[in-house]
Amino acid sequence: MPLVIALAGPLISLDVKPGLPYSADGVLGTDGLGRDVLGLLLVGGRTALGMAFGAVLIAYVVGGLIGLVAASTRHRWLDEVLIRPLDVLLPLPSLLVISVVAVGWQASAPAITLAVAMVNVPTVARLVRAAALDAASSPVVEALRMQRESWTTIQLGYIGRAVVGPVAADIGTRITLAVFLVASVNFLGLGLSPTASDWAVSVSRNREGLLLQPWSVLAPALLLVSFTLGFNLLADRLVHQSHRQPVSPT
Which residues pair with 36 in a beta bridge? Predict the structure, then answer.
């Protein structure tokens, strides 16, 4: 449901004039600025979830490429050059790095997305590298190289398939973590503008009026919690179903 709201919500136009702060007007009342809570929920998911999905996509593209190259290279020095700098980034507190970037880049959505992606790249790269090592050193890859197959065919056509399972198992947790990081930065006031319709911003901005109009806080908070729980359960179920599928004989 939260994902449906995030995707379809902005297409639904609710022309509601601002009313009194924390009033009972409308279906879910109004927030601290007198805006309709339901209208904010319909458009707030595109930033709350959009930045998280974008960050995970960038992290897998960049980190996945680094991991594949590091696993399949024949030169140990190249493996060291690609992986060792990422080891330096691993111990850094993720929320601190994202907060510094958000403040330095004036809290823009692309800045937060890139910062969340950056803190996930080292983990993704090491995951992909570990999953691809066995396939990259297999006789099949040597045979493909002797046949002068292209680098793309070897990496994505054969080695990449060995990474699909671990990536599928990791993606649920990775997206949930990205949602948590984006929401945390916005909740702390270091992310988007305080007047943004983002779900986490709504929770932060209206928490002082929780007793006056609880839906202004509870509604966006419930959407964030239900998305993280639901997406994790869905990803876990898909992974288990893929493991249970019988392998066809060759």
Answer: 30
Q: What is the rounded CA–CA span in Å between residue 36 and residue 18?
A: 7
- Measured CA to CA, the distance from residue 105 to residue 204 in angstroms comes to 21
d(CA 72, CA 135) in angstroms, rounded, equals: 9
Point out the residues of the chain with pLDDT beneath 70. Answer: 9, 13-16, 102-107, 149, 151, 238-250
Tokens matching residue 9:
């919500």
- The position carrying tokens 């680094």 is 66
Q: Please give the pLDDT value at position 96.
A: 77
Q: Which tokens go with 33?
A: 């600025």
Q: How far apart are CA 180 and CA 200, in angstroms?
A: 10
Backbone angles phi, psi at 36, to 5 degrees: -65, 125
Residue whose structure tokens are 């702060």 = 21
Q: So what's the pLDDT on residue 143?
A: 76
